[in-house]
Amino acid sequence: MPHQCVHCSKVYEDGSDAVLKGCKDCGSRFFFYLSHEKLEKIRSSGKERLNLTSAEKKQIEEDVRDIVGVEEEDAPIVMDFESVKVIKPGKYLLDIGNLFNKERPLVYKLEDGKYIVDLIGSMQRGKKGV
Amino acid sequence: MIRIIKSWSKRVLNSLFGRKDNIKLGFYGPPNAGKTSLANIICKDWTGEEIGSVSDVPHETRSVQVKEKVEIEHKGKKLTFKIADTPGIATKIDYEDFLKFKMKKKAAKKRAKEATQGIIESIKWLDDMDAIIVVLDATENPYSQVNITVVGNIAAKEKPVLIIANKIDLKKANVKTIEAAFPEYEVVGISAKKKKNIDDFYEALFRLSKKV
């Protein structure tokens, strides 16, 4: 699935190993999940850069690591705007319906010191009740 | 010896009637509805200690607070609860909302981050709960996205629910609107601040416990 590096905005079109090994351009392990529609939009508009300063990106990464409780700096994190959207540091939008409907944990341990944080909406199941 | 026999017979009777003794009771709802105020009344009444601090600034409870073995006696019946007071669930958290309460920017951003963390934690705890008290502010419109999503998702998990319409001491409070919004649930109007109708709450809590 497509991802975008939060720090340098590089886009990866498939489940690239960059998520685990770090961005090929800047080494960051902090990504946004991109839906295929979003990827198309980015591609057609040619606007890949995120509208955030590098200090804001750094702060957002620190906050997200805190929020999901991952202390290891090199643990990969893939953010998904469908569950928790960080607009700026200190400004969050939560899709609580999506959070309620997740049966899988938010943090997966891959191996010692390696976690993947799943805030990904691609696994969203059919919403119940609401 | 008598105590051992009593405890044994209680366990046998409970298992015979399928009643759970240590009922995990979760307090859920939007921020500033009075979840902690109500949980504090219960904990103070039956354990002598409060469960958490209360504030006018939203998102005062930012991690799940638990009180174990809260034994409540009502009309000669006794039940033991594990009470979990959860952070208020919201869809938007903005540190600028806290600045109005004369909070410094850095502290406000920290509060926003912790509140977000708290919401994720609240939702994770839901599966572990036996029964849910949804605390709503009776002065607010009950048809908000948060209320509908919270109640709908709890219902989808087939947990027994009791809805508390808090702040009935205020003029704007309207319990009937809450009843109309959630007709399939029992709604009890209370004022946690003025300790009004708390007996009705205990009555409803014991009714709720039968559904566990």
Category by helix and strand content of chain B: alpha/beta
- Biggest β-sheet description of chain A: 6 strands, mixed
**Number of strand segments of chain A:** 8
Order of helices and strands of chain B: HEHEEEHHEHEHEH
Describe the structure in your own words.
- The complex is a heterodimer of chains A (130) and B (212).
- By secondary structure, chain A is an alpha/beta fold.
- Chain A has one domain.
- Helices cover 26% and strands 24% of the residues of chain A.
- Chain A contains four helices and eight strands; from the N terminus they run ββαβααβββαββ.
- A six-stranded mixed β-sheet of chain A has the order 2-1-3-4-8-7. In chain A, strands 5-6 form a two-stranded antiparallel ribbon.
- The two termini of chain A are 28 Å apart.
- Chain B is α/β, with parallel strands linked by helices.
- Chain B has a single domain, classed as Rossmann fold, CATH 3.40.50.300.
- Chain B contains seven helices and seven strands.
- Chain B has helices spanning 2-16, 35-47, 95-99, 105-126, 145-156, 175-181, 198-210, and strands at residues 22-28, 65-74, 77-85, 92-94, 131-137, 161-166, 186-189.
- In chain B, strands 2-3-1-5-6-7 form a six-stranded mixed β-sheet, sandwiched between helices.
- In chain B, strand 2 and strand 3 form a beta hairpin.
- The longest helix of chain B is centred in the middle third of the chain and has 22 residues, at 105-126.
- Chain B is globular, with a radius of gyration of 18 Å.
- The two termini of chain B are 31 Å apart.
- The interface between A and B is medium-sized, with 22 and 27 residues.
